């Protein structure tokens, strides 16, 4: 069995309270593995590739600088090196995070999920689920009782579920047994196969009452250009 080796952890930050709390989990894991923490914020670009007016580009650059300063402030307040902060520009956000993960390269992404369902999920989507789908490294999605009431200072993992097969009542089982973590994998299916399989890992992330660790099982997912290739398969 391959020994777990975590050297670089990415924490996507949208400046919400939930995303900042995820830094505390990353810090505990970083201490355990002597790993480095990288904070990343994605700014949505509001212009097309053909629109490059100098005044507008200057405005965008100032916005990036402001976001970077705010991100460094969060890093300092949370005890993370401000030097390990990245402000990314582009859309969609999940693609930028996954590309950064390949560039560093990252061994783990730690992030929360807002748990959107219904119409909110349809219109707003879920960055966490899409990162789970496309990331070349494991993704720890913080949710539920992962953080104890002590100011979110401790990441509690006392009861863990690691299903050896997919069964449709994973989330109900987790709720009934008060689990702290579900560990599952994504097979990296794309196109029609991905749709027919039902996006099990993403569904678990969306509905689970506890935190979820998703480990990619597709060896090709770590190859350069894998994200773009998968997107082409899905839209082709």
Can you describe this structure?
- The structure is a single chain.
- With 236 residues, this protein is an alpha/beta fold.
- The chain has a single domain (8-235), classed as Rossmann fold.
- 42% of the residues lie in helices and 17% in strands.
- The protein has helices spanning 17-33, 54-77, 93-103, 118-124, 127-134, 170-176, 191-197, 200-207, 226-235, and strands at 8-12, 36-43, 85-89, 108-112, 139-142, 160-161, 181-186, 211-216.
- Strand 1 (8-12), helix 1 (17-33) and strand 2 (36-43) form a beta-alpha-beta unit.
- The protein is globular, with a radius of gyration of 18 Å.
Throw out a few tags for this protein.
8-stranded mixed β-sheet, single chain, disordered C terminus, 236 residues, Rossmann fold, globular, alpha/beta
């Amino acid at each position: 069995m391959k020994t777990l080796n975590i050297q670089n952890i990415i924490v996507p930050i949208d400046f919400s309270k939930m995303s900042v709390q995820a830094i505390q989990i990353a810090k505990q894991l970083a201490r355990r593995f002597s790993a480095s923490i990288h904070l990343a914020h994605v700014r949505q670009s509001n212009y097309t590739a053909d629109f490059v007016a100098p005044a507008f580009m200057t405005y965008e650059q100032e916005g990036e600088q402001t976001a970077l300063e705010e991100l460094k402030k969060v890093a300092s307040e949370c005890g993370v090196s401000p030097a390990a902060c990245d402000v990314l520009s582009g859309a969609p956000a999940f693609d930028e995070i996954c590309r950064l993960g390949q560039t560093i390269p990252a061994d783990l992404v730690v992030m929360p999920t807002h748990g959107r369902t219904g119409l909110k999920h349809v219109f707003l989507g879920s960055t966490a689920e899409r990162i789970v789908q496309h990331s070349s490294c494991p993704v720890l999605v913080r949710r539920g009782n992962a953080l104890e009431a002590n100011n979110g200072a401790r990441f509690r993992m006392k009861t863990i579920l690691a299903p050896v097969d997919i069964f449709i009542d994973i989330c109900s089982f987790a709720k009934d047994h008060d689990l702290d973590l579900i560990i599952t994998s994504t097979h990296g299916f794309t196109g029609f196969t991905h749709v027919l399989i039902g996006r099990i890992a993403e569904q678990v992330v969306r509905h689970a009452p506890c935190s979820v660790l998703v480990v990619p099982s597709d060896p090709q997912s770590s190859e350069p250009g894998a994200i773009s290739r998968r997107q082409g398969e899905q839209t082709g």
